[in-house]
């Protein structure tokens, strides 16, 4: 009887599956043979690690690119928010000024009856002012129209952004072009604001002078307004000098001496800011200057009087004493 039996294919597979792991552990040749035969079916450790490294590097680069794009987009939005906040702040400041103006006009309504005759003499001047206001109204209407057109364009841009999230590169280019346009619009807006500010300064100074002369506005408020113009427009530091004149050198009796001191780039300028100047006021200012120079031991390089209403006799005294006289802060030379 033949003791060898023929093994089936399934039995051979079962023997290989059960015995092969142990044989690979025991015999390195078998292990090397199996690895060589199966190598084409999978990637070895080095190749697998290299693939993972490349994938991780690509993911890292994609993430960094997206981060840069998002940071750039966020920066633009923050810049736009800052510009909007500045615009809102300017409008709030304008509203506050309008409220103050309305309050002044309400206070002045009570005194219109006594001043009708004076205002009739100024009708011609007011006609010119009305013409300027009408021109400003026209400019404001044009500005409002431009803003409405810009609002419409913004709505269209929002729709485009929602539809074109996939096209960030093209959107970035459009934003750069819009930034240039915004810069140009802001430049024009600032120029218009500066023109309006100068006009307001002259109107406010003129009204303040009239008000201070006829008791409609405190002299101190007028002085503070002109000091503010000097400091903001010319970068001049304005200080108020107060000193007791015990010997009465200035006014002929003991009294408080007050004078404005302007300092810029080390140059000492003594100044008198008043709504109106008479001959006696001019002489008093000259005595104040001498009093200050004696007390401080410093000589003023310039003596200024800023007043929209200066008597002719006061101007003669100013010419004699070397005092410079100006009607408005913007007229001052050399600041």
What report would you give on this structure?
This protein is α/β, with parallel strands linked by helices. Among the domains are: 9-41, no CATH class; 219-331, Trna Endonuclease, Chain: A, domain 1 (3-Layer(aba) Sandwich), CATH 3.40.1350. It is 70% helix and 10% strand. It is built from nine helices and five strands. Strands 1-2-3-4-5 form a five-stranded mixed sheet, with helices on both faces. Strand 3, helix 8 and strand 4 (302-306) form a beta-alpha-beta unit. Helix 1 crosses helix 2, helix 6 runs antiparallel to helix 7 and helix 8 runs parallel beside helix 9 (312-321). It is elongated, with a radius of gyration of 43 Å. Mean pLDDT is 81; it is low at 210-218.
Features:
335 residues, alpha/beta, Trna Endonuclease, Chain: A, domain 1, 5-stranded mixed β-sheet, 9 helices, 10% strand
């Amino acid at each position: 009887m033949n003791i060898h039996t023929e093994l089936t294919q399934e039995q051979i597979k079962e023997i290989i599956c059960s015995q092969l792991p142990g044989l690979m552990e025991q015999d390195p040749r078998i292990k090397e043979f199996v690895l060589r035969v199966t190598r084409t079916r999978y990637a070895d450790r080095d190749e697998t690690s290299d693939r993972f490294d490349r994938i991780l590097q690509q993911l890292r680069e994609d993430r960094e690119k997206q981060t840069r794009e998002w940071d750039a987009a966020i920066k633009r939005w923050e810049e736009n928010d800052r510009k909007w906040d500045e615009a809102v702040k300017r409008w709030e400041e304008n509203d506050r000024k309008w409220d103050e103006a309305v309050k002044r006009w309400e206070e002045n309504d009570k005194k219109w009856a006594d001043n009708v005759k004076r205002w009739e003499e100024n009708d011609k001047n007011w006609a010119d002012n009305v013409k300027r206001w009408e021109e400003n109204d026209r400019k404001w209407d044009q500005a409002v129209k431009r803003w409405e057109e810009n609002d419409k364009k913004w709505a269209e841009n929002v729709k485009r952004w929602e539809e074109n999230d996939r096209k960030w590169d093209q959107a970035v280019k459009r934003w750069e072009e819009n930034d240039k346009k915004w810069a140009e619009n802001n430049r024009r807006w600032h120029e218009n604001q500066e023109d309006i500010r100068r006009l307001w300064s002259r109107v406010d100074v003129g009204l303040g002078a009239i008000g201070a002369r006829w008791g409609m506005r405190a002299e101190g408020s007028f002085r503070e307004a002109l000091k503010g113009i000097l400091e903001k427009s010319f970068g001049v530091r304005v200080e108020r000098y107060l000193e007791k004149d015990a010997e009465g050198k200035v006014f002929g009796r003991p009294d408080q001496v007050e004078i404005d001191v302007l300092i810029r780039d080390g140059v000492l300028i003594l100044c008198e800011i008043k709504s109106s100047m008479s001959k006696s006021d001019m002489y008093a200012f000259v005595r104040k200057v001498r009093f200050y120079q004696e007390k401080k031991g410093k000589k003023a390089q310039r003596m200024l009087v800023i007043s929209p209403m200066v008597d002719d006799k006061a101007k003669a005294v100013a010419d004699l004493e070397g005092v410079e006289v100006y009607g408005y802060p913007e007229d001052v030379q050399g600041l």
